[in-house]
Protein backbone atom coordinates (compact mmCIF):
# COMPACT_ATOMS: atom_id res chain seq x y z
CA UNK A 1 0.00 0.00 0.00
CA UNK A 2 1.25 3.47 -0.80
CA UNK A 3 2.06 5.62 2.20
CA UNK A 4 0.77 9.19 2.42
CA UNK A 5 4.07 10.72 1.28
CA UNK A 6 3.99 8.60 -1.89
CA UNK A 7 0.36 9.61 -2.47
CA UNK A 8 1.26 13.28 -2.09
CA UNK A 9 3.99 12.92 -4.71
CA UNK A 10 1.49 11.34 -7.10
CA UNK A 11 -1.15 14.03 -6.75
CA UNK A 12 1.38 16.85 -7.02
CA UNK A 13 2.72 19.53 -4.72
CA UNK A 14 0.05 22.05 -5.74
CA UNK A 15 -2.78 19.99 -4.22
CA UNK A 16 -3.66 20.74 -0.63
CA UNK A 17 -5.62 17.95 0.99
CA UNK A 18 -5.64 16.78 4.57
CA UNK A 19 -4.19 13.41 5.56
CA UNK A 20 -7.73 12.17 6.19
CA UNK A 21 -8.88 13.24 2.71
CA UNK A 22 -5.80 11.65 1.17
CA UNK A 23 -6.45 8.39 3.02
CA UNK A 24 -10.01 8.38 1.68
CA UNK A 25 -8.79 9.03 -1.86
CA UNK A 26 -6.18 6.28 -1.54
CA UNK A 27 -8.79 3.80 -0.27
CA UNK A 28 -11.15 4.68 -3.13
CA UNK A 29 -8.38 4.19 -5.69
CA UNK A 30 -7.57 0.77 -4.22
CA UNK A 31 -11.25 -0.18 -4.23
CA UNK A 32 -11.55 0.86 -7.87
CA UNK A 33 -8.42 -1.10 -8.78
CA UNK A 34 -9.80 -4.17 -7.02
CA UNK A 35 -13.09 -3.88 -8.92
CA UNK A 36 -11.30 -3.50 -12.26
CA UNK A 37 -9.01 -6.46 -11.60
CA UNK A 38 -11.86 -8.66 -10.37
CA UNK A 39 -13.97 -7.73 -13.38
CA UNK A 40 -11.09 -8.51 -15.72
CA UNK A 41 -10.49 -11.86 -14.08
CA UNK A 42 -14.15 -12.84 -13.89
CA UNK A 43 -15.47 -11.60 -17.23
CA UNK A 44 -12.73 -10.93 -19.73
CA UNK A 45 -11.00 -14.27 -19.88
CA UNK A 46 -12.24 -17.58 -21.17
CA UNK A 47 -11.53 -20.58 -18.98
CA UNK A 48 -8.56 -21.77 -21.08
CA UNK A 49 -7.03 -18.31 -21.12
CA UNK A 50 -7.57 -17.97 -17.41
CA UNK A 51 -5.82 -21.25 -16.60
CA UNK A 52 -2.81 -20.11 -18.59
CA UNK A 53 -2.98 -16.76 -16.82
CA UNK A 54 -3.13 -18.44 -13.41
CA UNK A 55 0.19 -20.11 -14.16
CA UNK A 56 1.55 -16.84 -15.52
CA UNK A 57 0.23 -14.99 -12.47
CA UNK A 58 1.96 -17.25 -9.95
CA UNK A 59 5.19 -17.76 -11.96
CA UNK A 60 6.98 -14.67 -10.55
CA UNK A 61 6.04 -15.58 -6.98
CA UNK A 62 8.43 -17.53 -4.75
CA UNK A 63 8.05 -21.33 -5.13
CA UNK A 64 6.63 -21.66 -1.62
CA UNK A 65 3.89 -19.10 -2.41
CA UNK A 66 3.16 -20.82 -5.74
CA UNK A 67 2.64 -24.14 -3.95
CA UNK A 68 0.44 -22.45 -1.34
CA UNK A 69 -1.81 -20.85 -3.98
CA UNK A 70 -2.06 -24.11 -5.93
CA UNK A 71 -2.99 -26.04 -2.76
CA UNK A 72 -5.52 -23.37 -1.83
CA UNK A 73 -7.02 -23.61 -5.32
CA UNK A 74 -7.49 -27.37 -5.06
CA UNK A 75 -8.86 -27.06 -1.54
CA UNK A 76 -11.43 -24.44 -2.56
CA UNK A 77 -12.43 -26.41 -5.65
CA UNK A 78 -13.03 -29.52 -3.56
CA UNK A 79 -14.67 -27.92 -0.54
CA UNK A 80 -16.94 -25.61 -2.55
CA UNK A 81 -17.60 -28.11 -5.35
CA UNK A 82 -16.24 -25.67 -7.96
CA UNK A 83 -14.29 -26.15 -11.14
CA UNK A 84 -10.56 -25.57 -10.93
CA UNK A 85 -10.97 -22.47 -13.10
CA UNK A 86 -13.50 -20.98 -10.68
CA UNK A 87 -11.27 -21.75 -7.71
CA UNK A 88 -8.28 -20.15 -9.47
CA UNK A 89 -10.30 -16.97 -9.96
CA UNK A 90 -11.16 -16.89 -6.27
CA UNK A 91 -7.57 -17.52 -5.19
CA UNK A 92 -6.16 -14.79 -7.45
CA UNK A 93 -8.80 -12.28 -6.41
CA UNK A 94 -8.14 -12.96 -2.71
CA UNK A 95 -4.38 -12.84 -3.23
CA UNK A 96 -4.62 -9.46 -4.94
CA UNK A 97 -6.86 -8.13 -2.16
CA UNK A 98 -4.41 -9.32 0.50
CA UNK A 99 -1.50 -7.65 -1.28
CA UNK A 100 -3.46 -4.43 -1.24
CA UNK A 101 -3.78 -4.48 2.55
In words, what does this structure look like?
This protein has five helices and no strands. The model has no long low-confidence stretch (mean pLDDT 83). The chain starts with a helix and ends with a helix. It is mostly helical and 101 residues long. The chain is 80% helix and 0% strand. The protein has two domains: 1-44; 45-101, no CATH class.
Concise structural overview:
The chain has 101 residues and is mainly alpha-helical.
Name its key features.
mainly alpha, single chain, 101 residues
| Count of runs of 4 or more consecutive helical residues | 5
Mean pLDDT: 83
**Got a strand count?**
0
User: Any idea how many domains?
Assistant: 2
Residue stretches low in confidence (pLDDT < 50, at least 5 long) are none
Strand portion, in percent?
Answer: under 5%
Shape: elongated
Distance between the termini: 6 Å
Q: Label the structural class.
A: mainly alpha
Order of helices and strands: HHHHH
Helix proportion range: over 70%
Q: Please tell me how large the radius of gyration is.
A: 17 Å
Largest sheet: none
Architecture blueprint of SSEs:
Elements: H1 4-11, H2 19-44, H3 47-58, H4 63-80, H5 84-100
Helix pairs in contact: 2-5, 3-5, 4-5
Amino acid sequence: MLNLDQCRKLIGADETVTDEELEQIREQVYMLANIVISDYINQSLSNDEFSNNFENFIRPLPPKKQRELKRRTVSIAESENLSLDEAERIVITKHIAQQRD
